[in-house]
Structure formats: C-alpha cells, structure tokens
Amino acid sequence: MIHELRTYTLIPGTQASYIPLFEDAWKRIRGDRHGKLEGYWSTDSGTLNQVVHLWSFADLVERQRLRVELGKNQAWTGEYLAKSQPFLLSQENKILSAVLPLAPPHEQGNIYELRTYRTQPGKTREWLDRFVAVMPVREKYSKRVGLWQTEIAQLNEVAHMWVYRDVADREAVRAKFRQDPEMQKFLREATPLLMHMQSIILSPASFSPMK
C-alpha cells in the first residue's frame, strides 16, 4: 500500500468555488475507481488557500495504471480539468509509504494536523525508530491518523497526521504530552536529527471520508 498526498494552492478567495467543483467531479466521474480517496481538507493555518487530499493505491504500478486510465476519461479531462485549472496557482504531490497503518477516526466533527519533518540526510530511519518506539506514550494523549516516509518528492522527510476535536483540544493535548517524561526524553534525543518542521491545521470537506 502506498499513499499519495496532493496539495493544491488556490487563488485566494476561490476555495468556495473550487471545492464543490471537485466534489461533483469526484462523485459523478472519478469515485474510487482511480485510487481511493482517504481524506480531503482545506487549510485553516499554515499556508492558506490550499486543499490537501490523500489517496491510497496498492502500489506504484497500480497508481500509474489508474492515472493513465483517468487521463483517458473525457469527462474528467475535458470537463473537470478544464473548469478547475484556472483556480490553481500550484500543485504538489508526494508518494508516501506507511510506517504505521492508516487509522482514520470513527467519530466526526474533527480538525486534523499534518506535520512534515525533514531529517538530516541518512537520519530518517533513526528518527522514525525513535518515534515509533514512543508512539504508545504519545497516543495516550491523542490519536494518530497516519505516519509516513516520503518515497518520491522531498527525500529524508516524514509526515504524520493527528486528529483533534478542535483547536482548543489540540492545545490542551500538546501541553499535556510535553510534560510527560518519556516524551521529553524523546524530544531531547530526536529533535537534533531534524532540519525542518512544518505544521498545518486542516478542516475536512463535507464529503471527505475522514470527517
């Protein structure tokens, strides 16, 4: 199983038009026949005017085959893409391999935090090993949705996603786990392995499988 994380930056003020356009095309044209949509969000903080969508495929071969098939779909290319491309300023995609299984929340009404860390070259595995080891401690405070390593795009990079009830819940959770001695030990040992950290807060679209 691989995941594809796509981030599109939109012309400011166009989210309200772009997102329903995608929703209609996904439901009517694409569905999950060309990769399974795991989640679809817009950014609340971090880089604004972005939509983020996560897709799953069996492997790179299946992804390539399904993308070719989608590119031959006249309704998708001639109808949806023709209407949607004028909204876009930039597009980015990352191919991710799961370090831990995807764990979507069961309840609805959440916000999500996507954290992207770039490690020193050659240190990604060490950081991941430390993080996986401390995960049972970290998940006492909030639940992980996903933990990945980038395979194609920016190398030496990991991404992890967390779910919270709201921004206040996130702040309370982070204040609590920072006081945990095991988490403090992890941060002391693992943070020096990092070169760059980024966090964005995401709100799920009404049609997102993860709510």
Tags for this entry?
globular, 2 domains, single chain, 211 residues, alpha+beta, Alpha-Beta Plaits
Characterization of this structure:
About 35% of the residues lie in helices and about 35% in strands. The chain is α+β, with helices and mostly antiparallel strands. Helix 1 packs antiparallel against helix 3 and helix 4 (about 125-140) packs antiparallel against helix 6.
State the gist of this model.
This protein has six helices and eight strands. It has two domains: 2-96, Alpha-Beta Plaits; 97-204, Alpha-Beta Plaits (2-Layer Sandwich), CATH 3.30.70.
CATH first level of the largest domain: which class?
A: Alpha Beta
Tally of distinct domains: 2
How many strand segments? 8
Annotated CATH architecture of the largest domain: 2-Layer Sandwich
Q: Return residue spans where pLDDT drops below 50 for at least 5 consecutive residues.
A: none
Strand content: 35-45%
> What gap, in angstroms, lies between the N and C termini?
22 Å
Assembly state of the chains shown? single chain
How large, in whole angstroms, is the Cα Rg?
18 Å
How would a crystallographer describe the biggest sheet? Answer: 8 strands, antiparallel, barrel
- Helix and strand succession? EHEEHHEEHEEHHE
What structural class do you assign from the helix and strand content? Answer: alpha+beta
Mean pLDDT over the residues: 96
